[in-house]
């Protein structure tokens, strides 16, 4: 991405961005109809607001953001300056392309004005956070992004800032897209490549777990590849801080949800190792181990069925898949009692990883088996065309909801990472 130190230098602003307001389409991890049906299951009685999966859109016709970006001396901008003691704002960025969209906001490929530095700029709406009471989740995401600078396999944060109506994360731009874009179907990757990715993802998860954080949404879409071919675990929006097994609110993406979460049992890091097992199966075969268009049948399959293991898989590959996909989390690889002080050490010594030097891996000194082809720094061909071809817009917000709450709810959000 170039020398990121320019991010912290004072900028002489040029012509401001012209970003047209539009209506954001919600992106659901699980459809509304499926969730309604799922609530009929006796094991799920908790509110799903924590996960933010039942997102609808608020379409109040406000033009405050357009004024904010195009009228530097407006009252809106003066309010933003009060919220932004560090001086970073949306006016510092040129928005180049849409990379992704979720229930709370969008992620843009952006360029820092006056430089050639590229960032993934995540812009989320305060009104949705306030309406769904997910402020704690957002602050948790900020905390993890700050912490992520200490691990090479987590996406890194360079700065976060806010406007009157939006919270913004300026993160490193990982330009080779996510694993769902790269996994061949059918067939999957060969075992050395799958092993390498699984080891780097394991390293990221172990780091989070040592810091008492459960990711809860490990899936191909949240594993990014950088220009050298290394993995980056992304999207910490539904992470949870846990000290021990607890009964978690149902969340995550349906095909990767662990059976103990479906059954409403107490759980913690076990849900991440189950999801990694599902992801590894998909990498090795090109197919999901549990897949059904009917949500209830999918849940039943996750709880009751055993996956089929192709004869093409090695003995060690089948062994580790079975170990990660054990229905009982107490006997699952990474969770079971063993001779190791840390249960997760059993993952490192599993025969599937026998050729991995974990010391070098943690230092990011192992050469990836695959290096993506890059045409230009701003190439977005590895991202979904439904996003990259979309007109650059920012979603409308419901100003009334924001006004009902104090901006003090977001006090201390702004941050510049001097480590990057």
TrEMBL record:
It holds the Pfam family Pkinase_C. InterPro entries: AGC-kinase_C, Kinase-like_dom_sf, Pkinase_C, Prot_kinase_dom, Protein_kinase_ATP_BS, Ser/Thr_kinase_AS. GO terms for molecular function: ATP binding; protein serine/threonine kinase activity. The keyword Nucleus does not apply. Residues 93-353 form the Protein kinase domain. Belongs to the protein kinase superfamily. PANTHER family: RIBOSOMAL PROTEIN S6 KINASE. This is Protein kinase C epsilon type. It comes from Ictalurus punctatus.
